[in-house]
Amino acid sequence: MGTWWGTDPVKRSKEEIDIAALGREGMLLCECKYSSEPTGKDVLEKLKRRSLLVDSKLPKKLMVFSRSGYTEEAKKMAEEDGIALHTLEDVSRPE
Fold first, then answer.
1. How far apart are CA 57 and CA 76, in angstroms?
2. Residues whose CB is less than 8 angstroms from the CB of residue 27 and which lie 6 or more positions away in sequence, other chains included
3. CB of 64 closer than 8 Å to CB of 77
4. What is the pTM of this model?
5. Those residues with Cβ within 8 angstroms of residue 66's Cβ, 6 or more apart along the chain or in another chain
6. Tens-digit pLDDT string for the chain (95 aa)
7. d(CA 53, CA 7)
């Protein structure tokens, strides 16, 4: 588990995924946003694009963590594309 760094050969730019974890059944790729504004669809699109740069045949699960929730567009895209969304409240409440 750690951060993934790579290069987009088309854009010729350095790319980063905040959390990349490898498990028995696949990879988990996560983006984390600690902004006071709700996270938008653009963040999900960027994670989805970057996930294609990760050279692996393993199944990839995408997940986004956001301090301030999500826009309606982001929620809709997440539902359509199977991207898991979590808020700060989700990860900080006791079980």
1. 27
2. 20, 21, 54, 56, 58, 59, 60, 61
3. no
4. 0.89
5. 32, 33, 35, 38, 39, 43, 85, 86, 87, 88
6. 899 999 888 888 899 999 999 988 899 999 999 999 999 999 999 999 999 999 888 999 999 999 999 999 999 999 999 999 999 888 776 66
7. 8
